[in-house]
Design brief:
Order of helices and strands: HHHHHH
Largest sheet: none
Shape: globular
Radius of gyration: 17 Å
Length: 141
């Protein structure tokens, strides 16, 4: 399997999870496969496999130059991408559950989920602002 094919499969897999989360958050299949964390768990296993099978030597996270060199390897870059996919979806699941707890409308939640998918921390920030406005000031993570 090539990094490009793995990238496409992982990205499409993640998109299906996001579509279920945004479009059918309370459907049985969404609760069973996405909201209970199975979807990001599968991505996490993929992440681990990519790293285990494709890393040569250690990682240099101590400098920007070291990180740049590290991510010049397509497999390590792919692992970084899968890392984003897994963690962003995990945050989206949390946002969905938190929105239900606080009574936040799905129509307000969906833009937060979109931004969490596309530019993770911005979506998380947007959701936290909405959450704060709705009175959810206590951390529930």
């Amino acid at each position: 399997m090539t990094p490009e094919l793995t990238f496409k499969l992982a990205s499409n897999f993640a998109i299906v999870g996001w579509l279920l989360l945004a479009g059918l958050p309370n459907a049985r299949i969404t609760k069973l496969l996405v909201r209970n964390g199975v979807w990001p768990l599968v991505l996490s296993v993929l992440y681990l496999l990519i790293l285990a099978l494709n890393t040569k030597g250690g990682f240099d996270f101590g400098s920007l130059e070291g990180v740049t060199k590290l991510f010049s390897d397509p497999w390590v870059l792919l692992a970084g991408w899968v890392h984003y996919l897994a963690f962003d979806l995990f945050i989206g699941i949390w946002e969905t559950k938190e929105a239900e707890t606080l009574g936040i409308s799905r129509w307000i939640l969906i833009p937060c989920l979109f931004f969490t998918l596309m530019i993770g921390p911005v979506g998380y920030l947007l959701f936290q602002i909405v959450r704060w406005k709705k009175g959810g000031s206590h951390a529930s993570i």
